[in-house]
Amino acid sequence: MSETVLLLDRIKDLIKRIQVRKKNMSQITAGLPPHPWAIKPLGNAFGAEHNIKTAAGLFAALPDEFILRIFELLGPESILRLGETCKFLCAFSRFEELWKTKFIEWVDDSSIKRRPIRCEGLYSDVLYRPFENAHAPLRHHLNIPPNNQIPRIGQLSAEEFEDKWYDKPFIATEVVNDWPVMQYWNWIDFARKCNGASFTCEAVDLSFNKYFGYMVDQEDESPLYLFDSTFVEKLNLKVGRSPQRDEAYWVPECFGVDYFGVLGAQRPDHRWLIVGPQRSGSTFHKDPNGTSAWNAVVLGSKYWIMFPPISVPPGVFVSKDQSEVTSPISIGDWLRDFHALARDTPDCKEGICSEGEILHVPAGWWHLVMNLEEGIAITQNFVGRRYLSHALGFLKYKPDQVSGFDSDITDPYQLFVSRLEEQHPKELEWALVAIRKKHALRKRKWDEVTKTDSSEKESSEREADSSGKRVEQESAPEGSKRSISDCFRFCFSCGDGSDEEVP
Known about the structure:
This protein is α+β, with helices and mostly antiparallel strands.
Protein backbone atom coordinates (compact mmCIF):
# COMPACT_ATOMS: atom_id res chain seq x y z
CA MET A 1 0.00 0.00 0.00
CA SER A 2 1.46 3.39 -1.00
CA GLU A 3 2.32 6.11 1.50
CA THR A 4 -0.31 8.39 -0.02
CA VAL A 5 -3.07 5.79 0.44
CA LEU A 6 -2.03 5.25 4.06
CA LEU A 7 -2.11 8.99 4.64
CA LEU A 8 -5.60 9.30 3.19
CA ASP A 9 -6.83 6.41 5.35
CA ARG A 10 -5.51 8.17 8.43
CA ILE A 11 -7.18 11.40 7.37
CA LYS A 12 -10.50 9.61 7.03
CA ASP A 13 -10.05 8.18 10.51
CA LEU A 14 -9.32 11.67 11.84
CA ILE A 15 -12.41 13.12 10.14
CA LYS A 16 -14.61 10.41 11.71
CA ARG A 17 -13.09 11.13 15.11
CA ILE A 18 -13.75 14.86 14.77
CA GLN A 19 -17.33 14.25 13.64
CA VAL A 20 -18.04 11.96 16.59
CA ARG A 21 -16.48 14.47 18.99
CA LYS A 22 -18.56 17.33 17.62
CA LYS A 23 -21.71 15.23 17.74
CA ASN A 24 -21.62 14.23 21.38
CA MET A 25 -18.94 16.64 22.72
CA SER A 26 -17.72 13.77 24.92
CA GLN A 27 -14.07 14.75 24.49
CA ILE A 28 -14.81 18.21 25.83
CA THR A 29 -17.33 17.65 28.61
CA ALA A 30 -16.56 14.16 29.92
CA GLY A 31 -14.66 13.63 33.16
CA LEU A 32 -11.10 12.35 33.42
CA PRO A 33 -10.86 8.69 32.30
CA PRO A 34 -8.89 6.13 34.31
CA HIS A 35 -5.26 5.72 33.37
CA PRO A 36 -5.01 2.87 30.82
CA TRP A 37 -2.04 1.37 32.70
CA ALA A 38 -3.69 1.82 36.14
CA ILE A 39 -1.05 4.36 37.23
CA LYS A 40 -2.19 6.57 40.12
CA PRO A 41 -0.92 9.83 41.64
CA LEU A 42 1.92 9.57 44.15
CA GLY A 43 -0.30 10.48 47.08
CA ASN A 44 -2.10 7.15 46.73
CA ALA A 45 1.11 5.35 47.72
CA PHE A 46 0.68 6.33 51.36
CA GLY A 47 -1.06 3.44 53.04
CA ALA A 48 -0.96 1.25 49.89
CA GLU A 49 -0.20 -2.41 50.54
CA HIS A 50 1.69 -2.92 47.28
CA ASN A 51 4.13 -0.60 45.47
CA ILE A 52 5.88 -2.06 42.43
CA LYS A 53 8.69 0.49 42.64
CA THR A 54 10.25 -1.71 45.32
CA ALA A 55 11.01 -4.28 42.59
CA ALA A 56 13.09 -1.78 40.57
CA GLY A 57 16.39 -2.59 42.28
CA LEU A 58 18.70 0.40 42.70
CA PHE A 59 16.23 2.56 40.75
CA ALA A 60 13.83 2.27 43.70
CA ALA A 61 16.03 4.65 45.68
CA LEU A 62 15.87 7.39 43.03
CA PRO A 63 13.20 10.09 42.64
CA ASP A 64 10.96 9.55 39.63
CA GLU A 65 12.15 12.83 38.10
CA PHE A 66 15.73 11.53 38.12
CA ILE A 67 14.68 8.21 36.62
CA LEU A 68 12.93 9.95 33.75
CA ARG A 69 16.03 12.05 33.16
CA ILE A 70 18.08 8.83 32.82
CA PHE A 71 15.64 7.54 30.20
CA GLU A 72 15.85 10.82 28.30
CA LEU A 73 19.61 10.34 27.93
CA LEU A 74 19.24 6.87 26.40
CA GLY A 75 18.74 5.89 22.78
CA PRO A 76 15.56 4.11 21.65
CA GLU A 77 17.07 0.61 21.82
CA SER A 78 18.42 1.12 25.33
CA ILE A 79 15.08 2.53 26.48
CA LEU A 80 13.29 -0.61 25.30
CA ARG A 81 15.84 -2.94 26.88
CA LEU A 82 15.70 -1.19 30.24
CA GLY A 83 11.93 -1.27 30.10
CA GLU A 84 11.96 -5.07 29.86
CA THR A 85 13.50 -5.48 33.33
CA CYS A 86 10.38 -4.78 35.43
CA LYS A 87 6.90 -3.28 35.19
CA PHE A 88 7.92 -0.09 36.96
CA LEU A 89 10.65 0.72 34.43
CA CYS A 90 8.47 -0.60 31.60
CA ALA A 91 5.98 2.20 32.35
CA PHE A 92 8.78 4.77 32.01
CA SER A 93 9.94 3.19 28.75
CA ARG A 94 6.45 3.69 27.28
CA PHE A 95 5.96 7.21 28.57
CA GLU A 96 4.34 9.27 25.77
CA GLU A 97 6.29 12.47 26.46
CA LEU A 98 9.56 10.53 26.27
CA TRP A 99 8.80 9.11 22.82
CA LYS A 100 7.65 12.45 21.43
CA THR A 101 11.29 13.45 21.04
CA LYS A 102 12.42 9.98 19.93
CA PHE A 103 9.78 9.03 17.37
CA ILE A 104 11.26 11.15 14.59
CA GLU A 105 13.85 8.52 13.63
CA TRP A 106 11.92 5.49 14.88
CA VAL A 107 8.35 6.28 13.94
CA ASP A 108 8.28 3.72 11.13
CA ASP A 109 9.97 0.98 13.17
CA SER A 110 7.54 -1.68 14.37
CA SER A 111 9.81 -2.52 17.32
CA ILE A 112 8.51 0.47 19.27
CA LYS A 113 4.84 -0.51 19.00
CA ARG A 114 3.77 -0.44 22.64
CA ARG A 115 1.95 -3.43 24.07
CA PRO A 116 -0.81 -2.72 26.58
CA ILE A 117 0.47 -3.16 30.13
CA ARG A 118 -1.16 -3.01 33.55
CA CYS A 119 0.79 -1.42 36.37
CA GLU A 120 -1.36 -1.83 39.46
CA GLY A 121 0.62 -0.56 42.41
CA LEU A 122 2.49 2.15 40.46
CA TYR A 123 2.20 5.58 42.07
CA SER A 124 3.93 8.44 40.27
CA ASP A 125 3.08 12.09 39.68
CA VAL A 126 5.76 12.20 36.97
CA LEU A 127 3.88 9.59 34.92
CA TYR A 128 0.32 10.51 35.94
CA ARG A 129 0.22 14.31 35.62
CA PRO A 130 0.95 14.45 31.87
CA PHE A 131 -1.88 11.94 31.37
CA GLU A 132 -4.13 14.11 33.53
CA ASN A 133 -3.25 17.23 31.53
CA ALA A 134 -3.73 15.41 28.21
CA HIS A 135 -7.22 14.19 29.14
CA ALA A 136 -8.58 16.88 31.47
CA PRO A 137 -12.03 18.16 30.44
CA LEU A 138 -12.03 21.28 28.31
CA ARG A 139 -15.53 22.41 29.26
CA HIS A 140 -14.20 25.29 31.40
CA HIS A 141 -12.86 26.99 28.28
CA LEU A 142 -16.31 26.99 26.70
CA ASN A 143 -17.93 28.78 29.65
CA ILE A 144 -16.19 32.15 29.50
CA PRO A 145 -17.40 34.79 32.00
CA PRO A 146 -19.22 37.63 30.19
CA ASN A 147 -16.80 40.28 31.48
CA ASN A 148 -13.85 38.34 30.06
CA GLN A 149 -15.20 37.84 26.56
CA ILE A 150 -13.01 39.07 23.72
CA PRO A 151 -15.28 41.37 21.65
CA ARG A 152 -16.73 39.86 18.47
CA ILE A 153 -17.40 42.05 15.45
CA GLY A 154 -18.48 41.47 11.85
CA GLN A 155 -17.02 43.59 9.06
CA LEU A 156 -14.27 46.09 9.87
CA SER A 157 -12.78 48.94 7.86
CA ALA A 158 -9.20 50.20 8.12
CA GLU A 159 -10.49 53.52 9.50
CA GLU A 160 -12.51 51.78 12.24
CA PHE A 161 -9.53 49.62 13.14
CA GLU A 162 -7.17 52.58 13.51
CA ASP A 163 -9.67 54.72 15.41
CA LYS A 164 -11.08 52.14 17.82
CA TRP A 165 -9.52 48.68 17.65
CA TYR A 166 -5.78 48.97 17.02
CA ASP A 167 -4.92 48.47 20.73
CA LYS A 168 -7.65 45.95 21.60
CA PRO A 169 -8.03 42.23 20.96
CA PHE A 170 -11.08 41.23 18.94
CA ILE A 171 -12.50 38.37 16.85
CA ALA A 172 -13.80 39.38 13.41
CA THR A 173 -16.33 36.99 11.91
CA GLU A 174 -16.72 38.44 8.39
CA VAL A 175 -13.20 39.46 7.36
CA VAL A 176 -11.57 36.28 6.02
CA ASN A 177 -14.50 33.95 5.40
CA ASP A 178 -14.22 34.66 1.65
CA TRP A 179 -10.59 33.50 1.43
CA PRO A 180 -10.27 30.74 -1.20
CA VAL A 181 -8.48 28.48 1.32
CA MET A 182 -11.56 28.68 3.51
CA GLN A 183 -13.43 26.93 0.73
CA TYR A 184 -10.99 24.26 -0.48
CA TRP A 185 -8.72 23.45 2.47
CA ASN A 186 -10.50 20.46 3.97
CA TRP A 187 -8.27 17.81 5.54
CA ILE A 188 -8.11 15.58 2.44
CA ASP A 189 -7.35 18.36 -0.07
CA PHE A 190 -4.91 20.00 2.33
CA ALA A 191 -3.03 16.70 2.79
CA ARG A 192 -2.80 16.24 -0.98
CA LYS A 193 -1.46 19.78 -1.29
CA CYS A 194 1.17 19.09 1.39
CA ASN A 195 2.09 15.57 0.24
CA GLY A 196 5.87 15.37 -0.16
CA ALA A 197 6.57 18.69 1.56
CA SER A 198 8.49 19.03 4.84
CA PHE A 199 7.62 21.56 7.52
CA THR A 200 9.11 22.96 10.70
CA CYS A 201 7.57 21.34 13.77
CA GLU A 202 8.98 23.24 16.73
CA ALA A 203 12.70 22.30 16.74
CA VAL A 204 12.63 19.68 13.94
CA ASP A 205 11.69 19.38 10.28
CA LEU A 206 9.27 16.60 9.30
CA SER A 207 7.47 15.51 6.17
CA PHE A 208 3.78 16.31 6.37
CA ASN A 209 2.92 12.61 6.06
CA LYS A 210 5.08 11.76 9.08
CA TYR A 211 3.75 14.68 11.11
CA PHE A 212 0.15 13.84 10.30
CA GLY A 213 0.72 10.24 11.39
CA TYR A 214 2.05 11.55 14.68
CA MET A 215 -0.85 14.00 15.04
CA VAL A 216 -3.44 11.25 14.67
CA ASP A 217 -1.78 8.72 16.98
CA GLN A 218 -0.35 10.94 19.75
CA GLU A 219 -1.75 11.34 23.25
CA ASP A 220 0.87 13.81 24.46
CA GLU A 221 0.44 16.41 27.13
CA SER A 222 2.14 18.99 24.87
CA PRO A 223 1.77 17.78 21.27
CA LEU A 224 4.25 18.82 18.59
CA TYR A 225 3.01 21.89 16.76
CA LEU A 226 3.61 22.47 13.04
CA PHE A 227 4.71 26.13 12.82
CA ASP A 228 6.30 26.94 9.47
CA SER A 229 7.36 30.37 8.18
CA THR A 230 8.10 29.32 4.57
CA PHE A 231 4.82 27.55 3.79
CA VAL A 232 3.93 29.98 0.98
CA GLU A 233 7.03 28.99 -0.97
CA LYS A 234 6.78 25.28 -0.10
CA LEU A 235 3.15 25.01 -1.20
CA ASN A 236 3.53 27.47 -4.09
CA LEU A 237 0.71 29.65 -2.78
CA LYS A 238 -0.23 33.05 -4.18
CA VAL A 239 -0.85 35.70 -1.54
CA GLY A 240 -2.81 38.83 -2.42
CA ARG A 241 -5.76 39.45 -4.69
CA SER A 242 -5.01 38.34 -8.23
CA PRO A 243 -6.71 39.21 -11.54
CA GLN A 244 -6.49 35.52 -12.41
CA ARG A 245 -8.33 34.73 -9.15
CA ASP A 246 -5.84 31.99 -8.33
CA GLU A 247 -4.78 33.42 -4.96
CA ALA A 248 -4.88 31.29 -1.79
CA TYR A 249 -5.53 34.19 0.60
CA TRP A 250 -4.79 37.86 1.09
CA VAL A 251 -3.83 40.06 4.01
CA PRO A 252 -7.03 41.57 5.43
CA GLU A 253 -7.37 45.20 4.34
CA CYS A 254 -8.82 46.24 7.69
CA PHE A 255 -5.39 46.21 9.34
CA GLY A 256 -4.15 48.98 7.04
CA VAL A 257 -0.56 49.49 5.91
CA ASP A 258 2.00 47.03 7.28
CA TYR A 259 5.08 49.22 7.69
CA PHE A 260 7.40 46.26 8.20
CA GLY A 261 6.71 45.56 4.52
CA VAL A 262 9.26 48.25 3.57
CA LEU A 263 12.01 45.78 4.53
CA GLY A 264 11.12 43.51 1.62
CA ALA A 265 13.32 40.40 1.51
CA GLN A 266 15.19 41.62 4.61
CA ARG A 267 12.05 41.45 6.71
CA PRO A 268 12.23 38.97 9.61
CA ASP A 269 9.95 35.91 9.59
CA HIS A 270 6.41 37.25 9.76
CA ARG A 271 3.87 34.70 8.51
CA TRP A 272 3.32 31.10 9.53
CA LEU A 273 1.22 28.06 8.73
CA ILE A 274 -0.01 26.44 11.95
CA VAL A 275 -1.24 22.84 12.12
CA GLY A 276 -1.80 20.91 15.31
CA PRO A 277 -3.92 18.36 17.18
CA GLN A 278 -6.28 19.04 20.04
CA ARG A 279 -4.51 20.64 23.05
CA SER A 280 -1.53 21.78 21.01
CA GLY A 281 -0.64 25.46 21.16
CA SER A 282 1.71 27.95 22.77
CA THR A 283 2.20 29.08 26.36
CA PHE A 284 2.16 32.76 27.35
CA HIS A 285 4.33 35.02 25.24
CA LYS A 286 4.38 38.37 23.44
CA ASP A 287 4.82 38.67 19.69
CA PRO A 288 8.35 39.59 18.54
CA ASN A 289 9.89 42.96 17.72
CA GLY A 290 7.01 45.06 19.02
CA THR A 291 4.63 43.78 16.34
CA SER A 292 0.90 43.14 16.37
CA ALA A 293 -0.56 40.00 14.80
CA TRP A 294 -3.64 38.41 13.30
CA ASN A 295 -4.51 34.70 13.43
CA ALA A 296 -7.09 33.25 11.02
CA VAL A 297 -8.58 29.79 11.66
CA VAL A 298 -9.11 27.73 8.50
CA LEU A 299 -10.14 24.46 10.19
CA GLY A 300 -10.91 23.76 13.84
CA SER A 301 -11.17 26.22 16.72
CA LYS A 302 -8.78 27.86 19.18
CA TYR A 303 -9.10 29.00 22.78
CA TRP A 304 -7.33 32.28 23.60
CA ILE A 305 -6.60 33.93 26.94
CA MET A 306 -4.90 37.34 26.90
CA PHE A 307 -3.58 40.10 29.17
CA PRO A 308 -2.52 43.70 28.36
CA PRO A 309 1.19 44.58 28.33
CA ILE A 310 1.46 45.78 31.95
CA SER A 311 -0.47 42.82 33.43
CA VAL A 312 1.78 39.80 33.74
CA PRO A 313 -0.40 36.64 33.75
CA PRO A 314 -0.55 34.60 36.99
CA GLY A 315 2.09 31.89 37.03
CA VAL A 316 4.34 33.75 34.59
CA PHE A 317 7.59 35.29 35.82
CA VAL A 318 9.47 37.88 33.79
CA SER A 319 13.02 39.17 34.17
CA LYS A 320 13.51 42.91 34.78
CA ASP A 321 14.40 43.57 31.12
CA GLN A 322 11.60 41.21 29.99
CA SER A 323 14.08 39.20 27.92
CA GLU A 324 13.35 35.97 29.83
CA VAL A 325 9.93 34.50 30.58
CA THR A 326 9.44 31.58 32.97
CA SER A 327 6.15 29.71 33.20
CA PRO A 328 4.89 26.13 33.67
CA ILE A 329 6.35 23.88 31.00
CA SER A 330 2.98 22.93 29.49
CA ILE A 331 -0.36 24.53 28.75
CA GLY A 332 -2.01 21.82 30.82
CA ASP A 333 0.10 22.68 33.88
CA TRP A 334 -0.85 26.34 33.63
CA LEU A 335 -4.54 25.64 33.08
CA ARG A 336 -4.64 23.27 36.06
CA ASP A 337 -2.79 25.54 38.50
CA PHE A 338 -3.49 29.12 37.40
CA HIS A 339 -6.53 29.31 35.11
CA ALA A 340 -9.09 30.02 37.83
CA LEU A 341 -6.90 32.74 39.33
CA ALA A 342 -6.32 34.28 35.90
CA ARG A 343 -10.05 34.56 35.23
CA ASP A 344 -10.45 36.66 38.37
CA THR A 345 -7.62 38.98 37.33
CA PRO A 346 -8.63 42.43 36.02
CA ASP A 347 -8.17 42.92 32.26
CA CYS A 348 -8.19 39.17 31.52
CA LYS A 349 -9.68 38.50 28.08
CA GLU A 350 -10.78 35.13 26.68
CA GLY A 351 -12.35 33.94 23.48
CA ILE A 352 -12.87 31.07 21.06
CA CYS A 353 -11.92 31.71 17.44
CA SER A 354 -13.63 29.28 15.07
CA GLU A 355 -13.39 28.36 11.37
CA GLY A 356 -13.60 31.39 9.10
CA GLU A 357 -12.81 33.86 11.91
CA ILE A 358 -9.74 35.96 12.64
CA LEU A 359 -8.34 37.19 15.96
CA HIS A 360 -6.31 40.37 16.46
CA VAL A 361 -3.40 40.44 18.95
CA PRO A 362 -2.32 44.03 19.74
CA ALA A 363 1.41 44.67 20.17
CA GLY A 364 2.72 43.80 23.61
CA TRP A 365 -0.27 41.72 24.73
CA TRP A 366 0.41 38.46 26.55
CA HIS A 367 -1.43 35.50 25.05
CA LEU A 368 -1.81 31.75 25.45
CA VAL A 369 -3.55 29.77 22.71
CA MET A 370 -4.72 26.16 22.57
CA ASN A 371 -6.43 24.12 19.86
CA LEU A 372 -9.79 22.81 21.01
CA GLU A 373 -9.68 20.35 18.11
CA GLU A 374 -7.36 19.43 15.25
CA GLY A 375 -6.87 22.57 13.24
CA ILE A 376 -5.19 24.64 10.55
CA ALA A 377 -4.52 28.37 10.82
CA ILE A 378 -2.56 31.15 9.11
CA THR A 379 -1.02 33.94 11.16
CA GLN A 380 1.00 37.06 10.38
CA ASN A 381 2.79 39.76 12.36
CA PHE A 382 2.54 43.37 11.25
CA VAL A 383 3.35 46.96 12.24
CA GLY A 384 0.40 49.35 11.90
CA ARG A 385 0.62 53.13 11.90
CA ARG A 386 -0.49 53.56 15.51
CA TYR A 387 2.19 51.12 16.71
CA LEU A 388 4.99 52.30 14.40
CA SER A 389 6.68 54.24 17.21
CA HIS A 390 6.37 51.20 19.48
CA ALA A 391 8.14 48.93 16.97
CA LEU A 392 10.84 51.52 16.31
CA GLY A 393 11.39 51.97 20.04
CA PHE A 394 11.67 48.22 20.52
CA LEU A 395 14.31 47.91 17.79
CA LYS A 396 16.25 50.89 19.15
CA TYR A 397 16.16 50.30 22.90
CA LYS A 398 15.95 46.50 23.10
CA PRO A 399 18.42 45.26 20.44
CA ASP A 400 19.23 42.14 22.48
CA GLN A 401 15.58 41.06 22.22
CA VAL A 402 15.18 41.63 18.47
CA SER A 403 14.67 38.34 16.59
CA GLY A 404 14.11 36.89 13.14
CA PHE A 405 16.53 39.05 11.14
CA ASP A 406 19.31 37.47 9.09
CA SER A 407 22.69 37.45 10.81
CA ASP A 408 24.19 39.89 8.28
CA ILE A 409 21.78 42.63 9.42
CA THR A 410 23.68 44.20 12.32
CA ASP A 411 21.39 47.17 12.99
CA PRO A 412 17.70 46.44 12.28
CA TYR A 413 16.67 49.81 13.70
CA GLN A 414 18.76 51.82 11.23
CA LEU A 415 17.67 49.58 8.37
CA PHE A 416 14.01 50.14 9.25
CA VAL A 417 14.49 53.91 9.60
CA SER A 418 16.29 54.23 6.26
CA ARG A 419 13.56 52.32 4.43
CA LEU A 420 10.82 54.38 6.08
CA GLU A 421 12.62 57.58 5.08
CA GLU A 422 12.41 56.44 1.47
CA GLN A 423 8.81 55.26 1.42
CA HIS A 424 6.92 56.79 4.38
CA PRO A 425 8.81 59.92 5.53
CA LYS A 426 5.81 61.62 7.15
CA GLU A 427 4.87 58.56 9.18
CA LEU A 428 8.50 58.13 10.25
CA GLU A 429 8.69 61.74 11.42
CA TRP A 430 5.51 61.32 13.43
CA ALA A 431 6.80 58.09 15.02
CA LEU A 432 10.19 59.56 15.95
CA VAL A 433 8.51 62.56 17.59
CA ALA A 434 6.33 60.15 19.59
CA ILE A 435 9.42 58.21 20.70
CA ARG A 436 11.18 61.40 21.82
CA LYS A 437 8.13 62.55 23.79
CA LYS A 438 7.75 59.18 25.47
CA HIS A 439 11.45 59.08 26.27
CA ALA A 440 11.34 62.62 27.71
CA LEU A 441 8.27 61.77 29.83
CA ARG A 442 9.95 58.71 31.31
CA LYS A 443 13.20 60.53 31.93
CA ARG A 444 11.27 63.28 33.73
CA LYS A 445 9.51 60.68 35.88
CA TRP A 446 12.88 59.09 36.62
CA ASP A 447 14.43 62.44 37.51
CA GLU A 448 11.52 63.26 39.83
CA VAL A 449 11.95 59.99 41.69
CA THR A 450 15.73 60.24 42.00
CA LYS A 451 15.49 63.93 42.95
CA THR A 452 13.01 63.06 45.69
CA ASP A 453 15.36 60.38 46.98
CA SER A 454 18.25 62.87 46.95
CA SER A 455 16.23 65.57 48.73
CA GLU A 456 15.12 63.14 51.43
CA LYS A 457 18.72 62.07 51.96
CA GLU A 458 19.96 65.68 52.25
CA SER A 459 17.16 66.51 54.68
CA SER A 460 18.05 63.51 56.84
CA GLU A 461 21.71 64.52 56.87
CA ARG A 462 20.86 68.09 57.95
CA GLU A 463 18.69 66.80 60.75
CA ALA A 464 21.48 64.48 61.87
CA ASP A 465 24.01 67.32 61.87
CA SER A 466 21.75 69.62 63.88
CA SER A 467 21.07 67.00 66.54
CA GLY A 468 24.62 65.73 66.65
CA LYS A 469 23.46 62.24 65.87
CA ARG A 470 23.77 60.09 62.84
CA VAL A 471 20.45 59.21 61.33
CA GLU A 472 20.34 55.56 60.38
CA GLN A 473 18.44 54.67 57.22
CA GLU A 474 16.77 51.75 59.00
CA SER A 475 15.10 54.12 61.47
CA ALA A 476 13.36 56.19 58.83
CA PRO A 477 9.55 56.15 59.02
CA GLU A 478 7.74 53.68 56.81
CA GLY A 479 7.18 55.09 53.30
CA SER A 480 9.90 57.72 53.58
CA LYS A 481 12.46 55.89 51.46
CA ARG A 482 12.53 54.11 48.10
CA SER A 483 14.80 51.35 46.92
CA ILE A 484 16.21 51.30 43.39
CA SER A 485 13.81 48.46 42.60
CA ASP A 486 10.93 50.69 43.72
CA CYS A 487 12.15 53.34 41.28
CA PHE A 488 12.19 50.81 38.46
CA ARG A 489 8.67 49.66 39.29
CA PHE A 490 7.52 53.28 39.25
CA CYS A 491 9.13 53.94 35.90
CA PHE A 492 7.60 50.88 34.29
CA SER A 493 4.16 52.48 34.63
CA CYS A 494 4.19 56.02 33.36
CA GLY A 495 0.54 56.07 32.43
CA ASP A 496 0.93 55.27 28.74
CA GLY A 497 0.25 51.56 28.95
CA SER A 498 3.74 50.66 27.76
CA ASP A 499 6.06 48.13 29.33
CA GLU A 500 9.34 49.55 28.08
CA GLU A 501 12.11 50.60 30.43
CA VAL A 502 13.65 54.05 30.63
CA PRO A 503 16.65 53.72 28.26
